[in-house]
Amino acid sequence: MDESMLEAYLFEENELLDKLDEMLMSDEKEGDFSTDDVNEIFRIMHTIKGSSAMMSFNSISTIAHKIEDLFFFIRDKGIDFVSAADKKDLFDLMFKSEDRLRAEIEKVENGEPLTENVDDFIATVSAFLDRLKKDEVKGESDAAASASSGNAGSVPGTEKDPGAPEKAQTADAADGSAVSNIDNTAAVNAKLAGLPEDAAAQQFIHIFLEEGVGMENLRAYMIVNALQDCGIPFRTYPEHMDSDPSTAQQIIDNGFFLAFDQADDCQKALGILKSQNHIRSFEVIDAPRPAEEKKEAVPANSPEKKSSGAPASSAPQKNTQKAKSTSETAKKATPIKQSLISVNLQKLDSLMNLVGEIVITESMVTSSPVLKMLPQEAYDNFNKSARQLRKLTDDLQDISMSLRMVPISGVFQKMNRIVRDMKSKLGKDVKLTIVGEETEVDKSIVDSIQDPIMHIVRNSMDHGIEATAAERIRAGKNPQGEIILSASHTSSEVVISVTDDGYGMDYKTILDKAEQKELLTKPKSSYSPREALNLILLPGFSTNKEVTEYSGRGVGMDVVKKNVEAVGGAVRIDSEYGKGTTITLKIPLTMAIVDGMKVTVGDSIFTIPISNINQSFKVTAGDIILDEYGNEMIERMGNFYPIVRLGRFYNIPSKYDANVEEGIMIWLEAGDKSCVLYADDLIGEQQVVVKPLPTYFNNYDLKNVGISGCTILGDGNISIILDVAGIYAAAVENA
Amino acid sequence: MEETIKKESLSDVISDIPADTEEETRDLKRCLVFESGGLVLFLSTEYVIEIINDHAITSLPVVPDYVRGIINLRGQILPVVDIRKMMGKEAADYNSKTCIIVLNIDSVPIGIVADNVRSVLDIDMNEIHPLPLHHPQKLANGMLKLDDGTVAMSFDCHALVQG
Asked: Suppose A253 and one of A145, A244, A591, A593 were both cysteines; which one would form an S-S bond, judging by CB atoms 3.0 to 4.6 Å apart?
């Protein structure tokens, strides 16, 4: 297990528990939970459950899961549902849970093995939940009905639900030591799912009839009859549907259940059900089973694992994995003490600013002309100290930059989850390969690229990878699809790419589609394949005819593009029809410091981000081509690009406006926009600290004319930082 | 009468004058009196941060011509507005008397170019008359006769930042 991951986990867990503690303390003073706090506790437990399960700390995740269930229930009913006496008990219980979780986390910290059996605690929570439920049953069956039908059989409280399939393993009545717990927990789960209590049953089928068919009890009975005719043994809930008309309402609200002792019978029944009328939906539910670690504690007692419903199919594998890594954790007995603190991002921002100023001031001091007046020996001494100072300030700058850097693994790990969920939903077999997750990125950038990456991964899963393995085999590919998520550094940017080996995109289809949607801005034939691919980044473009749960609402890629450009990045699409697609995001390491090229026009100094510069070159007047309006263009690498004369564009008297031989052309590129800028001179390269323009200028919309900020140069003068996309938009597109 | 007030001396002048010692009917405010484009203007010292001389101004493209540009004031970037131009008067060359008054108006920091700074005076806000003109004024929102006989206009700071 990765040590840094463990460290981050411990940090997160302790922080969450601290938060929980704080909340409980203040709530207990009030004597009541606020609705917000109930939600917050639910979220905290959900997070602890999730990350503990990821780290294979089963006892922690089980406890958190149980409390999550409890708070799901409370959240669902509203905190006012809980009586004052129960609230007091709830506080006690929560403090106990917090202590329990802390105790386990402490064990993780010290490298000790975790408690294997947390049944006693689970039972306490379950008993409490039961008590609450009993209160509820006394008169609120309607509410329960809507809750269970809304949740259609899955255990409420686990919307994301890695735990449910595990819990829904086959009932294991043989585990003598835990019989009482099983009954207890089983009952709880049963109620959660609206399942009838039937200890002997292995599987249930939960059936809903079509709405408004009338005489529901009798129709249900007819279905039951049909099954009985086939000789399948089962029991029905509610019982006596034929003779008790009052069950009709129950069936409308809750559907009805068939309980099977053998999974085989259940499978047979499914076949027959398909031919029956008036059934709106039915679903196989495994009989509830107590929390999964019991099985790990007594593996010998484990019954054969069933592969019944689709949701349960991944569970057995998961369990074995867990068991394995638990023992791994136990082996590794080196104590890991966390050494992380959380700091307000604003403080880091001001630190960065200050350090930026120090670096600039340092170069102002050391290059001051006054120094020349020092006698030679003193000047040498000064230089010696100055060099030392420079080294220190450089180190200081590096460290203060690195403070804001976090590994991108957090974002990538979430993709694992998305791929896993979509895999079972879409019935595609896809492997997610992650490369370079230790790559570090500025914190603020990580936050803003998570959604774009998620979107691209979803798109790849949904549209990229072939719908069936057979189709892949026909195309001569590995039946298992693959999505590669990779991150790497270049000197000034992070490159994140999502590659799938699916259909690939046909640029001709894209062009047709874009034509239909009237997104083309020039004749169809003049689009290059790359330009055609870029069309999918336009708002309102979606190649899939059907909107699915995950993607295809046509709001996808344009949002990706917008989000990435907001952090100064660019999106690039490469796709080969039949082979697959790669979408690459290039994002600057940090937005606070930019590698800039200083250029002059007249007396003004402008800074152009180096990442936007392709090339700078001299031209003769003959190289410039004019269109019918006199707009200038120039050829570069076989393509023609518009020339933007910075001096004319900003209305600044330029030194060499008349003879272009003296000035310099700078070929710029931002995303898919490219143009050539004409300026007087290049001064040189410099790392600059980006400062926003004063708020006073918000009225003037300078962003739209290509001014994105400013910076203070070494001599104290100000240089304006140009935004290439803005210049292109203002000078070329809207000219 | 004329004196260029440096940053340090300004605060000295301010602290010399005790607050609210006058009668109830008078609403005294300490005001900075300065000249621009032939007008004598005054504004409450509560907006004034400091007065600086001889500062390099970096001009900005595509903004109205009365926005002189931006300056670097110890690492802080400030916009500088030439109020002489804002009032539609001819631009004058900057000389040794010219200075930038750094203001903070509703937490918008901004510098204005003044031809000359005169002094800090106590001005009774109740004595300020509205301008007897129908033309809406850009930056002046009242007038008053000073003790030495000159007529001074009240400078409308908020109009400046909303401008």
From this structure: A145
